[in-house]
Each structure stands twice: as C-alpha cells, then as structure tokens.
Design goal:
alpha/beta; 13% strand; four-stranded parallel beta sheet; eight-stranded mixed beta sheet; 14 strands
C-alpha cells in the first residue's frame, strides 16, 4: 500500500485524525485550529487534572475561552491521559516541554517519555511531528530511534517531521493561521505530507531541507531576540551611567526606516522561549568544541538585569535613609510580559528572591496572577493596588500590564523604581 498517497488523500478530505501530545500553550491552540478546520482530533496529556478540566468543558489557558473547549467536545474531541488513544491517529503532533536543567543543559525527559509512549501505538502510514523547541539533531538523533523501537522505519513506514512552534501567548494582532509555519522532513515524502498537513490550518507553510534546519530556524529566531534584548539592556545601563534618558534614545533610533529594529530594555527576559532556547544552541555547539560567545554573553547580561534593578531599589531606599532589610517592597507585575498570566522564567522571580535575601518584605500586585508558586516562592497577590502602594516603602514596576493607572501609582508611591520605563512611555 502507498501510505503516502493514502495519507495525502485523508488530509485533503479532512478525514485524517489529528492527535496532539501535550496540551499546553502550544498544543491546545493547535488542536483547536485543526478541529476548527474540520478534522477529528484527539488530545493527550499526562496531567490528569488538566484532562478532567478539558473533559468538563473548561479551558486551562487564560487566552483560550471555555466556549472553544465546549465546541471541541461538541465536535467529538477526545481527551485522555493514555497514549493508547493515539492508535487511531493519522498524525501525532508532539508539544511537550523541553526545559533546561540546573546546569543549563537540555532536559529531554518529557520528549523521551512522549517518544516511548507513541512508539507503543505507532502504526504504518502515520505522521509524527515534533514542535517542541530543542537543539539541532534532536528529531533525527533522539526521537527517530525511540519511534523505530516499534519495528517501523521512519521515512518508509511512518513520516517524521519537525515544525517549530511560534505561539506567542497573549498576542491578538496575529492569529495562529496567519503566522507562517516552518516545516522540515526526514525525507522528501515526509516534507510533502507535512506541507499538506499544516497547509490545512496555516496560510503560509515554509519548507526547509531537513529537520535539523527547521530546528535551527527556531533557535535563530529566539537567539536573535535574546541578543538584541541584551544589547538594549546594556545600552540602558550605559545611558544610566551617562545621565541620558534611554527611552528617548530608543524612540529616536526607532524612527530610522532601515537598518534598525526596536527592542526595549527591562528587568530581564522571561517566558518559555527567549531565556531558554539560545542555551540549546550553546549546549549543542559545546559538543562540537565551539564556544557560542554571543549567546553566552547575551545570557549573562539578561540574567544580571534582576540584580541591577534590585540594586536600584536598594539605592532608592538608601537615599531616603532606609535600609532594604525590614523595608516593604511592592512589585507591580510578575508575569513575564504584559497582558498574560504566564510567569515562567519571569525576571520577577529572581527579583523576589534577591530582595528577600537582602531582608526585604516583598509584596506583589498582578491583575493576571492571583498567586505565585514557583522556585520556592509562595506568595499571594495583593487584591488592592492602591492599598498595596500605600503600605509599601518602595514600588518596583516589573511588568507594564495594560489598564493600570501608572500616574496614580507614581503619585501615591513613597519611592518608585520603573524598570519598564512605563511612565516615560506614557508621557512620550
């Protein structure tokens, strides 16, 4: 049987069953997009609480309304914690976490778990696509052998693909279907099928020559951001020492219509991509005896920004004749960016830890994050911003969430440290 032609036909007729492993910020929106396009879908995640939530018609993502989940269920979507649910799938998309361990090396335990679980239920004619960000070579060197333990051969019996996710939580100006999708296949047949599959939900599919190239594309995108954020953060420090308004400099430079892209300084970098992805590249190159100097330097600068802003808080308190120890410091915003509840790798976490190490009592206000449970931090958000400002010795703006009256905050605060230049931005 020509599995290539069978699968192409099933995809074109929207009969192909789409399974997604990992129903987080990447996997769940992807599942929704295929269901909207008319495909039958299966969702698999090892988190039983998440599966129970989805089965009951509730969303586990802040920017994906419950109505979308109810619509999925109405179309016959199946949610399960058991890999066996994937036996009927024609395509399985892997969207599991790929974090770093304490030594900043890739932690692929979730990917190994997914590959092993899928292999037990892999069948001929199935597409397996990895979307999780990782180092170049992962799809071919790690995932492929796991799947081939099934006795099936990649590129002949099943089709292996890498297509990097480009999900940006909270973004509203672009929908998932409007963001071009890069795909790389293990073989020409794999690539053709990947283009056809993703072309059903994405307006523009961008093919590259291999899974390794597709993996590298993702790392280039986020290393580019990490390096440029580090640059503008260092420019901010330089401007501070020179007595220059960095925001004025950034805005003026941004008027150049060519050769410049605007990045803004802040308390560091956060989220599931920029703080982590460049380290995959750095780690991989170390195995080839190459030192990725730009990547490492950018990481050092961005990682140092929380301490820079804690020092600013300490300086402000010292100038007011008050020590950090025993002072109450209010952080406004602990999410890693405006308008979302996601605090993964947020610089606020490091800021809180550093302030507490210096003896400060830390409070936080974030309209999107009611409680903070991460890296040993256990804090409840303040319910009333004005009351929190009034009870604090110093206020540090970390995340410039929309809807906050920053002028009112500035007028009430005894001391204000603005790491995001929110007030200058409003005045400009």
């Amino acid at each position: 049987m020509d599995w290539n032609e069978v699968l192409l036909q099933r995809i074109r007729e929207k009969q192909a069953i789409i399974g997604v492993v990992g129903l987080g910020y990447v996997g769940l929106p992807l599942l929704v997009s295929f269901a909207r396009a008319g495909f039958p879908v299966l969702g698999m995640d090892l988190d039983a609480a998440k599966i129970d939530l989805l089965r009951s018609g509730h969303s586990c993502l802040a920017d994906l309304p419950a109505d979308e989940i109810k619509a999925l269920l109405g179309r016959g979507a199946v949610f399960s914690t058991d890999y066996a649910v994937l036996e009927s799938a024609d395509a399985v998309l892997i969207c599991v976490p790929t974090p770093l361990n304490k030594t900043r090396d890739p932690d692929v335990q979730f990917l190994i778990q997914a590959g092993t679980g899928i292999a037990r239920h892999l069948r001929k004619g199935m597409i397996v696509a990895l979307e999780s960000t990782t180092y170049p070579g992962t799809t071919d060197e790690l995932l492929r052998p796991l799947l081939e333990e099934s006795g099936l051969q990649a590129g002949r019996d099943f089709f292996l693909v890498f297509s990097p996710e480009r999900i940006d939580p909270g973004r509203t100006d672009l929908t998932l279907d409007e963001i071009p999708k890069v795909v790389g296949g293990l073989s020409p047949q794999c690539l053709v099928l990947a283009q056809e599959l993703y072309g059903q939900i994405i307006q523009t599919v961008v093919p590259v020559s291999s899974t390794q190239s597709a993996e590298m594309v993702k790392l280039l995108e986020n290393t580019f951001r990490a390096v440029n954020i580090a640059l503008v953060n260092e420019i901010a420090i330089m401007c501070d020492k020179l007595g220059i308004d960095v925001w004025e400099v950034v805005e003026a430079a941004a008027t150049k219509p060519y050769g410049f892209m605007k990045f803004v300084p802040g308390p560091g970098v956060g989220g599931h991509c920029v703080p982590l992805d460049p380290h995959y590249l750095s780690w991989k190159l170390k195995t080839l005896d190459y030192n990725a100097r730009f990547v490492q330097l950018a990481g050092e600068i961005n990682s140092a920004m929380p301490k820079y802003w804690v020092d600013k808080v300490q300086d402000a308190l010292n100038q007011a004749g008050q020590a950090v120890k025993g002072s109450t410091v209010l952080l406004i915003g602990v999410a890693y960016k405006p308008g979302v509840s996601d605090f993964r790798e947020s610089p606020a976490l490091d800021i809180i830890e550093l302030l507490e190490e210096r003896g400060a009592r830390v409070l936080y206000y974030d309209p999107f994050v009611t409680e903070l449970r991460a890296d040993g931090i256990r804090l409840e958000g303040e319910p009333d911003l004005n009351a929190a400002v009034d009870s604090s010795d110093c206020v540090l703006i970390v995340t410039d969430h929309p809807g906050i009256d920053w002028e009112a905050v500035a007028s009430r605060a005894r001391l204000l440290v603005d790491s995001r230049f929110v007030l200058k931005r409003q005045k400009s």
